[in-house]
């Protein structure tokens, strides 16, 4: 049965763009999202890998999640219980990819090919991203440009390489349609 109050407080009712950095004042919702993150770290890590096409190591993803919690980024109004992995990726800025593995998904295959064909500093050997040069260079993933079009939402994934103080050279940029993720709170029995 339709309820106007429930509809107006539903996180899916009127999504907020990720570029808006307004803090949510409702501590109850903030604490629920924080608890969902803490209770579902393993599932969240798996979802981040699926979104990015990169098999980021657990240690790296858990570090990102810890930074996310410490910064209280889950308190932004754009974050809701259905878009947590996107919020983690969006707020972490550039994620270093050197040494990480690429998965065999469609996106992973496009990333693999882009590194092979467009990167002057990196290569892929046996599915792992490796450097081709001795100097300091970086290859990083950036999730940005959140857009809302009707009932659908999109983000841009860009993988760029940088040599010292040079501008970042984007070797692949993909628009991805966001999907909803569902996480469950663990029941604690004392």
Question: Could you explain the architecture of this structure?
Answer:
- With 190 residues, this protein is of the alpha+beta class.
- It has 6 helices and 8 strands, in the order αααβααββαβββββ.
- It has helices at 4-9, 27-39, 41-52, 58-70, 84-91, 106-118; strands at residues 54-55, 95-96, 101-102, 122-125, 128-131, 137-149, 152-163, 169-177.
- A 4-stranded antiparallel beta sheet has the order 2-6-7-8. Strands 1-3 form a two-stranded antiparallel ribbon.
- A hairpin with a 2-residue loop joins β4 and β5 (128-131).
- α3 (41-52) packs across α4 and α3 crosses α5.
- The longest helix is centred in the first third of the chain and has 13 residues, at 27-39.
- The chain is elongated and about 55 Å long.
- The two termini are 36 Å apart.
- The model is unreliable at 5-10 (pLDDT under 50).
Write down the secondary-structure element order.
HHHEHHEEHEEEEE
> Span between N and C termini?
36 Å
> How big a fraction of the residues is strand?
25-35%
Give the uncertain stretches in residue-range form. 5-10
Number of strands: 8
- Which whole number gives the mean pLDDT? 89
Strand line-up in the sheet with most strands = 2-6-7-8
- Which class do the helix and strand fractions yield? alpha+beta
Helix content: 25-40%
Please compute the radius of gyration using only Cα atoms. Answer: 18 Å
The number of distinct helices, counting runs of at least 4 residues, comes to 6
């Amino acid at each position: 049965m339709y309820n106007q109050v429930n509809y107006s407080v539903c996180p899916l009712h009127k999504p907020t763009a990720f570029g808006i950095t307004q803090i949510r004042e409702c501590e109850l919702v903030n604490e629920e999202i924080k608890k969902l993150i803490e209770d579902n770290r393993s599932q969240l890590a798996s979802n981040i890998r699926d979104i990015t096409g990169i098999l980021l190591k657990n240690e790296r993803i858990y570090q990102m999640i810890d930074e996310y919690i410490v910064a209280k980024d889950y308190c932004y109004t754009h974050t809701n219980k259905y878009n947590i992995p996107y919020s983690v990726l969006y707020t972490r800025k550039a994620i270093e990819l050197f040494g990480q593995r690429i998965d065999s998904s469609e996106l992973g295959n496009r990333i693999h090919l882009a590194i092979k064909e467009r990167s002057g500093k990196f290569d892929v050997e046996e599915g792992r991203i490796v450097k081709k040069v001795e100097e300091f260079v970086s290859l990083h993933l950036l999730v940005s440009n959140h857009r809302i079009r009707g009932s659908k939402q999109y983000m841009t994934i860009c993988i760029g390489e940088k040599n010292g103080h040079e501008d970042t050279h984007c070797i692949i940029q993909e628009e991805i349609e966001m999907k909803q993720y569902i996480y469950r709170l663990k029941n604690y029995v004392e």
